[in-house]
Specification:
With about 100 residues, the protein is α+β, with helices and mostly antiparallel strands. It has one domain (about 10-85): TusA-like domain (Translation Initiation Factor IF3), CATH 3.30.110. Helix content is about 35%, strand content about 25%. The chain is built from four helices and four strands. Strands 1-2-4-3 form a four-stranded mixed sheet. Helix 2 (about 20-35) links the parallel strand 1 and strand 2 (about 40-45). The relative contact order is 0.17. Residues about 1-10 and about 90-100 have low confidence and may be disordered.
């Protein structure tokens, strides 16, 4: 007999500790965008992902649920959930490169 809750939790967990830092945010954003409203996943990280919270909350204002499950010192676990549709008009996607000043 198998325990489906273990399998479900594994499928709902995104552990980015072994992912190169430059690839983490794009991977997390992709996972968030794919979430149906009312669904969630658990992010596992090796540091407090507070900057990610600010970025997600800015780009998907009114659509983000963020609940710390574990807060270090070695592992952080956060349940990230989709609380509203993306078509609500609150998405404010600004490309990072466009927001950075250019050296001339």
């Amino acid at each position: 007999m198998s325990d489906t809750s273990d399998t479900s939790e594994q499928n709902d967990t995104l552990d980015v500790r072994a992912i190169p830092p430059a690839q983490r945010h794009p991977m997390i954003f992709q996972r968030f965008v794919a979430l149906p409203v009312g669904e969630s996943f658990v992010l596992v990280n090796d540091h407090d992902p507070k900057p990610l919270y600010y970025q997600l909350n800015f780009e998907y204002s009114g659509q983000l649920g963020w609940d710390y499950l574990e807060q270090g010192p070695k592992v952080w676990r956060v349940r990230i959930s989709r609380t509203a549709e993306s078509g609500s008009g609150s998405q404010k996607h600004i490309p990072l490169r466009a927001a950075m000043p250019t050296a001339e």
